[in-house]
Predict the structure.
Amino acid sequence: AQSVTQLDSQVPVFEEAPVELRCNYSSSVSVYLFWYVQYPNQGLQLLLKYLSGSTLVESINGFEAEFNKSQTSFHLRKPSVHISDTAEYFCAVSDRFQGAQKLVFGQGTRLTINP
Amino acid sequence: NAGVTQTPKFQVLKTGQSMTLQCAQDMNHEYMSWYRQDPGMGLRLIHYSVGAGITDQGEVPNGYNVSRSTTEDFPLRLLSAAPSQTSVYFCATIAGTDPYRQFFGPGTRLTVL
């Protein structure tokens, strides 16, 4: 069985500041890792994913996450945030045998951007 | 192409009442699933289906029933609602052409009094 821990429930930052949202996972098998974003009053959208290969993955809107197998982490970073990044971010894991079908989510981190 | 639609958006029930949350998709995705989202707990998988006629349990199936008679629809039934089922419910699908991305509907906010 897998589990995901997001270490911060809320992260307030100022606009144009850097941000890191932390995610640690545990699993007895190889995993796929995901970050989903939920804007207010909307469903979740896939932000980025790690399947294999390069441990650094990027999204189209400037976020990146790095898979660290030894530390079982998949932290999300952005060097300069915008007001529009205000949302809740969820880290998720699935085991490689089931693809992305049965996701296990973390508790979520609410990112608030202050002007 | 409407994507994943869920109805109703909001619902208030009394304990013991029954209702069905509707989920429909027009993308011909074989895989559909239901999650519930609770504060501080993220999303948890209730039931899922890999195709018409096939369903299986997720992490928290108790109190919920599903069926999948068509590819397009995957309703979630609460036979006797309880306050513990107060939550936001999301339906999600996966495309066969992109098996690593789940498409989520806008959600149904359910309150059980």
Q: What stands out?
A: Chain A touches chain B at residues 4, 6, 9, 32, 34, 36, 41-46, 49, 51, 90, 99-108 (CB under 8 Å). The mean pLDDT of chain A is 93.
